# Entry
Amino acid sequence: IPKDPEFAVPEPDRRSSGTMEDKRNIQIIEWEHLDKKKFYVFGVAMTMMIRVSMYPFTLIRTRLQVQKGKSLYHGTFDAFVKILRADGVTGLYRGFLVNTFTLFSGQCYVTTYELTRKFVSDYSQSNTVKSLVAGGSASLVAQSITVPIDVVSQHLMMQRKGEKMGRFQVRGNLEGQGVIAFGQTKDIIRQILRADGLRGFYRGYVASLLTYIPNSAVWWPFYHFYAGG
# Structure
């Protein structure tokens, strides 16, 4: 796991045809030396802070992508104002409680990456091979956790007073009377199960794997190549 770059004592400049050699020495903290408690606690806390500030824009983006033309909102600012007027601040956080469970996918990603690298090192000492396999495996685990949670939270994002936006509509009063918090989540989960079965929670799963696995598998070898100079 990379630490803040600490540059070694610089060597004399070596210039050749107007160019300078740049030697990178980035200190790497191995998994076994990491304070796991601090890593998991601070990692989740920092991600949560970012998620709280960005979630309203994720909800607005999702609604803008789903709506027919400009039937409800004419843009980001228009959507922001209309949601606030209709539902208040809580309207910008529909599905947020469910979505927070994806925080653990990030921790699972890093854990899988490090443990897989350690496992692969018993069979190959190639940094490229270890990073390639570990990066792909980490994304596989992370997306397997994230996709079902995203499916449910996105259906919750579509809940609004009046007109139906998504495939499913929760029963009860969206203001909180009758169906609140995880009551809405349970209702959506039941409807997905009835309509599509377990496969309904993995809509877009293959597309996600085809997007994130190659990206992660290629990124990590380049990172370690860069870190090693």
Summary: The radius of gyration is 23 Å.
